[in-house]
Amino acid sequence: MPQKISTFRKAVIAYTDGLDPKKADKVKGWIEHNGAKYSREITDDVTHLIVSRRAWNSYKLMGMPHHTADAVYDIDPDAVIEARRKRTIYLMNLDWLEDSLISNKKKPIDEVNEKYTWEVEHAKKVLKKRKEQQLAVKKEKLRALKLAAKEAACGDVGSSGEERSKVGRMQQIINCGKKAPASVLRHYHTKDRNAYSTLVLVC
Fold first, then answer.
1. Which residues are CB-contacts of 76 (< 8 A; sequence separation ≥ 6)?
2. What domains are defined for the chain?
3. Which of 32, 49, 68, 113 could pair with 83 in a Cys bridge, judged by C-beta atoms 3.0 to 4.6 Å apart?
4. What is the pTM of this model?
């Protein structure tokens, strides 16, 4: 079985109808083989929506003066509408997916690149929103870490001496601003050691 590539690691990708028929059947495989998850629905987990030109044109038709409630669309624009409403999903064209796969890079091509996104300003807003979400997650992890350390100082965490020792060690790290050792970070079930170290240093 071929090994998966990690180009789209952590990405969850959906796509609209209307893609090139010669490629449409392959897109799901491209997504999954390169480290991403494929989603049939526009959920909160989706990070990117591959939008066909036909689907985008149908969406743009809604803003035209002649638009009526019974207008006939080439492709149902509901997926695009829902993705824009969530404000956390990039609207990309198929070229972005293909060029990212052949670029031999570990990360996909910049989502704000006007060559690959249908709406640059929307992409910038999504980027800003996602950075805010990531910061909020880091702050919550740090808050939980400090709370655990405080509880350890009062002797309320864990039933074993080993548990209290690990959390007590983290309290010392927070107090003196040292870099958290790998053994302590593993205790908190994270591989992102640098992020945790940074959070500990700034507290």
1. 17, 55, 58
2. 12-118 (3.40.50.10190), 131-202 (no CATH)
3. 49
4. 0.67
